[in-house]
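#onboarding

Welcome to the new folks! Below is a worked example of what a typical request in this channel looks like: someone posts a single protein sequence, and someone else replies with the predicted structure as tokens. Don't worry about understanding the tokens yet, we'll cover that in week two.

Example request:
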Amino acid sequence: MSGGPIHHPRNPELRPHLLALAGIAAATLLLALWPQIVLHAGYACQLQALLGLRCPFCGMTRDFAAMLHGHAPTQNPCSRAAAAVVWLLYPAAVLAAWRTHRLSWFSSRAARCAVVVTLVVMLVLNNQY
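Example response:
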């Protein structure tokens, strides 16, 4: 194995993913140990305030805290899938992409399109009454 930039653990393409994974770990720890700090912070969704629509993520903080404490999510129909992505799929995808030297996939047009389509679907699902 060569010591080139692709194999080097300080690969600049890996850095944003490591930061994101650290943020996920910190947020998970915070919601697991001290959910009241986040749940009582008093923040409000600006999309809901301006347009009356629930954003794709409205209710997920409460649902993630509930799931971490053994309760079913009830606030957002996408919370289970989002939790699977955040806690399982994304870390596994980063590891696989890093090991196969394909971290650039995350910045590809296909990845961006997948994110946009997913957010639109989540927006629609979170606003069905």
